[in-house]
């Protein structure tokens, strides 16, 4: 509402921007009786960690710098007819890192879980660590196999292979000479 009031007060120069702003859903703010500037109103709406998960779209660099100082507030810009989502601010990145380190379980719940485990005797004490003994391994299973005996059947194929050797027929010189004489 404060942004619409500010656009009305600026006159005909920003009449188009006022028409565009009126198309969007109007969120109620705490400045009903005493309207403040649009940037101050937007900053007040994103206080306390942005509970309504608002995105802030602005071309005002001063407002953008103030928004970047708050964690968890996405920032939009318009550059040459294109909407651009700005990269997360260092404050937002640090906030996310802090949340990841705290994990999902709060600290007081972690402590109560430890106490309940101790009460039930489920915790391991430091002095009672048991080491696994290495058992002596048996012999290599392949070395335990029985040796194969050579059988007659296995010898015969090798004998046949020897018989298959090719013999060279040599022609005696006498036979060659006699063939030459007949011609």
TrEMBL record:
GO terms for cellular component: small-subunit processome. Involved in rRNA-processing and ribosome biogenesis. The keyword RNA-binding does not apply. Residues 151-160 have a biased composition (Basic and acidic residues). It comes from Struthio camelus australis. This is rRNA-processing protein UTP23. Residues 121-183 are annotated as: Disordered. Residues 130-149 form the UTP23 sensor motif region domain. InterPro entries: Fcf1/UTP23, PIN-like_dom_sf, UTP23_sensor. Coiled coil: none annotated. Keywords: Nucleus, Ribosome biogenesis, rRNA processing.
């Amino acid at each position: 509402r404060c942004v619409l009031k500010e656009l009305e007060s600026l006159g005909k120069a920003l009449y188009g921007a006022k028409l565009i702003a009126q198309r969007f859903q109007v969120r109620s703010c705490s400045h009903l009786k005493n309207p403040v500037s649009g940037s101050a109103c937007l900053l007040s709406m994103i206080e306390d960690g942005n509970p309504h998960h608002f995105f802030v779209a602005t071309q005002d660099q001063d407002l953008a710098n103030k928004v970047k100082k708050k964690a968890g507030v996405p920032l939009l810009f318009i550059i040459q007819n294109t909407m651009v989502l700005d990269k997360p601010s260092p404050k937002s990145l640090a906030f996310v890192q802090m949340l990841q380190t705290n994990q999902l379980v709060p600290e007081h719940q972690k402590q109560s879980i430890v106490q309940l485990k101790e009460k039930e005797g489920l915790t391991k004490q430091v002095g009672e660590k048991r080491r696994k003994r290495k058992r002596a391994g048996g012999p290599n299973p392949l070395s335990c196999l029985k040796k194969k005996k050579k059988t007659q059947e296995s010898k015969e194929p090798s004998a046949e292979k020897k018989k298959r050797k090719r013999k060279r027929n040599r022609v005696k010189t006498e036979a060659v000479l006699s063939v030459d004489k007949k011609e």
